[in-house]
Amino acid sequence: MAASTRVTSPLLDVLEVFLSAWQDDDRGVHGWAIMKETKRSGPTVYGVLDRIETAEWITGEWDPDSAPGRPRRRLYRLTPNGRIEAARLIAERRPAASGIHAVLTRLGLSRWSPAFGGGSR
User: Fold this and answer.
1) In this structure, is residue 105 part of a structural domain?
2) Contact call for residues 92 and 70 (beta carbons, < 8 A)
3) Is residue 4 assigned to a domain?
4) Would you say residue 2 lies in a domain?
């Protein structure tokens, strides 16, 4: 995602869901779960998913365990670069976010410049 890309509350909400899912054994999440967790509408969530998938922060794949007779679900996961960029944005914009320090530590990014809420690199 380009540095000039506008950072919105829906973007940050969606990224928080992905970071939480990554902490929880890197489980994939589908759009409906993200909508439920963020309390955001489908067009809003899927607009964010399109943006971050285009930026290669997430990958999507069809859920092989979709229930028969039900619509298939697309599962999304953060890419390695997406994890880093999502953690940086959340640390910068929502430093009090629950669990962000654990995410930063797990990524090896617990020591950052002050702009990202940490010490020197």
Assistant:
1) yes
2) no
3) no
4) no
* pLDDT confidence bin for 95, thresholds 50/70/90: confident
Average pLDDT, the chain: 83
Averaged pLDDT for residues 10-21: 94
What confidence category does residue 3 fall into, taking pLDDT thresholds of 50, 70 and 90?
low
26: left (phi over 0), alpha (psi -120 to 50) or beta: left
**Residue 121: inside a domain, yes or no?**
no
- Domain span at residue 17 reads 9-116
DSSP codes joined into one string, 41-72:
-HHHHHHHHHHHHHTTSEEEEE-TTPPTTS--
Structural domain count of the chain: 1
**What does 77-112 look like in DSSP terms, one character per residue?**
EE-HHHHHHHHHHHHHH-TT-TTHHHHHHHTT--S-
32: helix, strand or coil? helix
